[in-house]
Amino acid sequence: MGFKVSCRGREVVYEEGRKWKDIASDFSDLYDYDILLVHDLKENALLELPKGIERDTEAEFITYCDKAGQMSYARSAIFIMLKAFYNILGNECIKKIEVEFTIGGNFFILPQGDFTLDEGLILKVKDRMKDYIRADIPIEKLNIRADEAVERFHRFGMYDKEKLFRFRRASRVNIYRLEKFEDYYYGAMCPSTGYIKCFDLKLFHDGVVLMLPKDDDPLALRDFKPSEKLFKVQSEAFKWADQIGVDNIASLNQLICEGKANDLILTQEAFFEKKIGEIAQRISRGDKKIILLAGPSSSGKTTTAHRLAIQLRAYGIRPHAVSADNYFKDLSHRPAGPDGKPDFESINAVDTESFKADMKRLLAGEKVELPKYNFKTGIREYKGDFVQLSDNDVLIIEGIHCLNKEFSAGLPEESKFRIYASALTQLNIDEHNRIPTTDCRLLRRMVRDNTNRGYTAEETISRWPDVRRGEEKNIFPYQENADVIFNTSMIYELAVLKLFAEPLLFGVTKDSKEYLEAKRLLKFLDYVLPLSPEIIPKTSIIREFIGGSCLDVG
User: For the whole model, what pTM was predicted?
Assistant: First the structure.
């Protein structure tokens, strides 16, 4: 009995059980780079190459240039790196090797234990990784009982994973083996070490950076131009999470089980308020009149602006909120994007000259009528919103271009204070499986889109790549211009968002292009125990997304 594989106009018949790795070689000439995974278009499922064929399949093969391929490559590279560390140092010397966050698209790793992290050790690890890669060792997938997995991870000293699996409902789990070294990853892996052709390791601060290829070229490393300000904020977030004993999903689940979630929420909200207060104090000490607030989608800029305004009032400062969106050019004068539709993301969509003229007049003490952009008509309107600044007044200006110096060029630099707000997730699934900050923002946006606009999860997911491209072009390049970077992530938020996001994600049907992404998000939410939103304060940034805020965040 044979099964037919169709791909890009080519059809080949294979015997039952033939490995996809062998099948991929017959289609490799249709792709520019190595095939890492298979997308079964009929079943809308990702398949790993060691799996055998089971049915007639219309396939699209996944390379590094696809998001799923990049994630598979990254997991496999991390697996190889961890094996090298454990092989060189031994289990007894390693307390933990934590994959904390990404920096400039690369991974910041924090090894901890009874050893010295120096250039000599990094060189040994790198050379050992190269040995494994040259040997092209198979990455085996094992399906074992959950209790057996707990025992194995205890033996390796991977106690975060041991804790995590106690909260798994499934009786069996998949783990991966590289020779005798075993680990768990919640996504697909490359079939063998030989697929990881490009990587590097660099010492950075108290850890090491695992450098991986560029998005569009698996044979060329990403440039390593770290944002020191962003790194500092991310590091502080992870250290604080460790200090309060909630450094991963298992720890969060444990607190929820013990009935201590309310204390955690109040602690996190107090920490948020403390940080906002510190920013307000800095502003109050200087002669700042223009506070520029920017950040990527769903970073909670609106709540941040409101909470900052409250803190400023406590210092006797009267804030006036100004949305940069109100300075959009009329629709008839809006530049078009690549798709021919009006481009709301470009700085050229904003009438920066009118904005700067109004700000100069306000700084000069004049009374100025500010506009309001009508998104229904596509026209900027004036309806009697007059503002005049006194000695104790400041402007809080929120918009995606606020950190772009072109946006406020010509306004006195000494009057400006720039804030970059971003949800920098400090909580990972376990020490080796990180949760991308973009995933948390996507979940926030998905819930808010549904609550405020009636969008489905499918619609939000389909728009997300365009949102991300806009961020890469218009927001991230300017984050280092900020005087302060403010982390808006709540350590408990996934447990709350889960209740709202899961039903939306289950609504994405198998025939949808967004099904694979919905399935991936559901898989990692499955690790999180739910938390009732009833105990979330009405001033919390999470209320901006789930509803019920006492602030004007609509």
Answer: 0.93
